[in-house]
Amino acid sequence: MELELRHLRVLCAIADAGSVGRAASVLGYSQPAMSTQLRRIEGFFGESLFERRVSGVVLTEYGAEVLAQARDVLARADAIGHRPRGSTPGTRQTLRIAATNSPILSGMVVRIRNRIPDLGLTVSSVYSSSEIVELLERGEVDAAIAADQPGLGLRHSDAVAHRGIVTEPCFVALPARHRLRHRLEVDLADLADDAWFLTPDDGAGWPGVFHAACEAAGITPAVVHEFLGDQFQLQNMIADGLGVSVVQATLRPIPDVLIKPLTGTPLWCRYVLAWRRDGLAGEVADTLFSCATAAYHDLIAQAPHFQAWASGA
């Protein structure tokens, strides 16, 4: 068969729904027809794009690469012949972006500049996801990368839309000479006596979910330092043996810092793209989303500790 845009939309629908059956319902197909379509698509690529599970489907590593490219192609195709609302040839618009602490931001911005060279960008660092929502609601920013926790979705009015970029596990950063340095993964209960660096309330469930995970593990952290600085400063303090911290799974460690998965993966974080419905054309939102997902997959490629966890090694 020849690969067509409709096939890419099928892949995106299955990935977004997490189930062939749910995707079939969204697209108006029968489940057998959708399953047949997926087999043909995987036949075209020569290997499986999804791992089948009882609860649904999960992207394989190769499937994640194909999906990122599919979203990029679809965003480009949908943008053909369109320009942001209110723009005219030769004019330069400015897109105001706010972002919480996320390694996705840099790669996303680089891609946006390459994809929409006539679009000016201003970027503001805003830690609290609830504050990011307020800025969007007031029209002070046009789009943002925010974070929330599984089961505690980002709350906002109908003036704002959001779309999940990725839900990733939270890992722990340790000093390279830590007593648990030889473990492939670290049990939260074994860190009860360590000092913790924790970021403050983000208005979206953190650090409440951390304390709930500690309670479930039967521990109360001995010392908790509230910390809101840059990741480099945090890692320097960890390298000096001053404590440990929950970190993004794709964070690149500096020398003398180790990043390890937590046993049982008790903590997860979701990064979302949020935007004002009346301030951002749909095709621009699609472009931002595809740039963000592509940036995230680049981060995975540079994070061997995450790759090892994902492969079950």
What's this entry about, in short?
The two termini are 36 Å apart. This protein folds into 3 domains: 5-79, Arc Repressor Mutant, subunit A (Orthogonal Bundle); 93-167 and 269-311, Periplasmic binding protein-like II (D-Maltodextrin-Binding Protein, domain 2, 3-Layer(aba) Sandwich), CATH 3.40.190.10; 168-267, 3-Layer(aba) Sandwich (D-Maltodextrin-Binding Protein, domain 2). Strand 7 (195-198), helix 7 and strand 8 (223-226) form a beta-alpha-beta unit.
Overall pLDDT level: 87
Largest sheet: 9 strands, mixed
SSE order: HHHEEHEHEHEEEHEHEEEHH
The tally of helices reads 10
Rg (CA only): 21 Å
Report the structural category: alpha/beta
Shape call = globular
- Helicity range: 25-40%
CATH class of the largest domain: Alpha Beta
| CATH architecture descriptor text of the largest domain | 3-Layer(aba) Sandwich
Keywords:
two-stranded antiparallel ribbon, D-Maltodextrin-Binding Protein, domain 2, 10 helices, alpha/beta, globular, Arc Repressor Mutant, subunit A, 39% helix, 313 residues, 9-stranded mixed sheet
